[in-house]
Input
Amino acid sequence: MKTLSLLVLILIGLISPAGAVVEWDNRCWSDDKIERVRSKFELEVKPGVAEYKKCDWNNAYYQTLAGLVLMDLMGELNETNDKYDQAIIGKNPFDYFSSRATKIVIESSCHQALAYVRPQLSKSTVHVCPGIEDAGALYIGAIMVHEVRHFDDFDHVPCSGPHNRGVLACDSKYAEQGAYAVSTEFLVKVSRTPNLEPSIRKQARSKAITEFIQRFNSRPFDIEEGVALLNDRNKLYFYDGEKPVQVGSSPGKDYVMISSDDFVTFAGAKKKERLKFDYRESYDKDDFGYKPRYLEGLTAKEIPKFRDQSLYGKFACTLFSDQLRCISSDLKEVERVDIPSKSAVSFIYSELSGIVESEQLYVVDKSGTLYFVPKTWEELKETSSLRVSETRLSLISIGPWGDASEIVVQQDGRVMIYDWTSAQWSSAPHLEKFKAKKMFAPFYWSKKLQQL
Ligand SMILES: [Zn+2]
Output
């Protein structure tokens, strides 16, 4: 018996390629793996930091080390040295990090950061913040290589685009090879390394695309701003005024394109999951933040009535045909308000609009009646029925379009443009035969980025 199990072990050892697949989903790393990375750095834990708790993904201390373990186990990554991978960090990101950082400080509080360095005080110390708990193991690797790039005197500039506008969280150009170029390169490499699991490669690709779109003021790869349109056959298109380009396969008819403050997202009420869209065939489960988890609460009876979800503002709301249901940001309170017509269609929201009130979330029903969603949690708690707007609009979605116009999807599926200056409506060019179900705006896309 003993001989047999030994033989089986040897066989397994022979079959699996040497040092290959990292089982990243199984993230309860063994003590020896944790110890291996811990021993490479001087570790300082600030008073107030929760005690190290093995395998606890709400424990910043464990999570930091687990992120490093993942990066360590990845070993050598694929390096192509092309326009996506500028070959700054070399093949082994853990070596890049550990050759530059000698000390890690786990902080008990930080101001709006996941991690930071102070090169003027130390060019070998990385400070990790409590917010890192939400980053996920893969992204921690990106954060780590990002931080040590600051030791080469690369700084950030304020973001000029809609993401983090005005915040020092961008670099001017990808080609400048600053700290965001380094974190993005890490993600690109992970996405292109064949012996890593498909799920982590997909997640890395999705995150790399996000970084390319959000982190560089001069957007690389000819990334254009437009809108994402879902047609009546559940195919997603990029549209910027030219002929629409299909950018992904169908997410399936059970999925509802939802309003998200970041990226195109699909909510699958039946399976109670959210899919984050990342170009082409790759749909990724979006498993960060409190808002996605809200879908889990749906009952079988509610699923057919599910219409939309809004993640704007300080609380998240789910829309059913007959009810608006919102959850407070601490997840502790839920408020329900009935929709009298029982025919709600979607949320309508625009940051800057000449058609509806800017920065006001509405519910629209089949008759085109618009209902105001209260702006604060306190106000919502006191609301027994939603206030009705005098404006009636048979819309499904609304979004910005250039400097002085807006783009809308009507309930009959037509895509129209509203010109503020002339107060005129016109059909969106090249979309005369297009039947849209939902729109997401703004949406950034380029052929070169899709080829990543
Ligand atoms: Zn930075």
Notes: Confidence is low (pLDDT under 50) at residues 1-21, 286-292. Residues 146, 150, 156, 179 surround zinc ion (CB under 6 Å).
